[in-house]
Amino acid sequence: MRSISIIIPVYNEARTVAELIEKVRSVDLGLEKEILVVNDGSSDGTREALGPYEDGSRGVWVHHSPVNLGKGASLRIGFQRATADIVTIQDADLELDPAEFRRLIQPILSDEADVVYGSRFRDAGIRGDLTFYLANRALSLFTNVLYRSSLTDIETCYKVFRRDALSQLVLRASRFEIEPEMTAQVLKRGLRLVELPIGYNPRSKADGKKISWKDGFAALAMLVNQRFGK
Hints:
CATH class: Alpha Beta
Order of helices and strands: EHEHEHEHHEHEHHEH
Mean pLDDT: 93
Oligomer: single chain
């Protein structure tokens, strides 16, 4: 049977992380699942919420970083540990439904794609905060100009990789700029990328959303550096 590694980076998500893990555990993808949770130095009780999964008996591997390193660092830890044929990412904030993976893995299983993105904005109007929406669309447009692509959501959490495609990426980002870093390298290497629409239940800053306008500037810098840097 083919397998999938699902990396869950977590930072201060004590209220939602257990519910999210159970959603991931329960979804039937027709694949053997490897669930890898990376706790990024949380200080809100996330470590305690992950306690029931630490012995590995529920098919979940848990790593605790002693300090907050950033989403990029957490993903790189998860990628290094992943062993499955397919590797993907799941945030712990319940904005996205793990059931979407059923559709997202199909182009890889049928050998039509090396990478699949689940777009929150493809075939959809404005979702969530207007400023957040416009910033995401602007980043995607900037990416398309630099790399001659036609993407609608480069910041999506749902990036699904063939393991051998992911191994071609040289990732160094520690924070949210790992999203454009992955996208730039996928496009530069000419990997077969398919984008499919997904559902999206956006949350606000008040609900705990962590990405900020500063991360937008870091994303732009990453895209430029990846395009023109050595």
